[in-house]
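hiii so um. not sure if this is the right channel but i have a protein structure encoded as tokens and i wanna go backwards to a sequence. like what aa goes where. can anyone help
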């Protein structure tokens, strides 16, 4: 994924106002409590979890719950094999936004649509402006940046 944190921006707004810490499981994945040993890090036994481990695991569960209850039943059924917030989120992004190549193609198509945007004979000014605003919204959502002068020139021409 190109930039997961920017993809989370709209969804993260809800999490920021409820519990900012719930964003971590989306971006970093689940917390795995480990202990350092001479042989490296090894998973902790449940009885060895400290308060921080319990807090992070609780955040993982809350984030997964928030994401899960937001899904339509039909969608949730197709994604029931995903058991962590990050894997479920990544699957949803891939399912509905496509992979990086698909997103780049979509951006190319939107740029082409912007370049070819034109008044159609018989259209009202209100209709042209509405179509243009919709296009600009799609462009902004895709992360394509045009400066305001380019946007104004395109609409006025």
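sure thing!! here u go:
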């Amino acid at each position: 994924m190109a930039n997961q944190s920017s993809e989370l921006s709209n969804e993260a707004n809800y999490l920021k106002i409820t519990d900012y810490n719930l964003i971590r499981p989306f971006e970093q994945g689940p917390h795995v409590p480990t202990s350092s040993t001479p042989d490296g890090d090894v998973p902790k036994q449940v009885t060895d979890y400290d308060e921080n481990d319990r807090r992070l695991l609780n955040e993982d569960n809350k984030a997964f719950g928030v994401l899960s209850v937001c899904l339509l039943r039909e969608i949730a059924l197709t994604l029931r094999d995903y058991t962590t917030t990050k894997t479920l989120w990544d699957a949803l992004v891939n399912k509905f936004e496509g992979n990086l190549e698909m997103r780049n193609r979509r951006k190319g198509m939107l740029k082409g649509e912007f370049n070819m945007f034109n008044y159609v004979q018989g259209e009202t000014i209100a209709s042209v402006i509405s179509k243009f605003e919709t296009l600009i919204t799609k462009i902004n959502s895709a992360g394509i940046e045009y400066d305001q002068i380019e946007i104004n020139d395109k609409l006025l021409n």
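oh and Residues 51-69 form the longest helix (19 residues).
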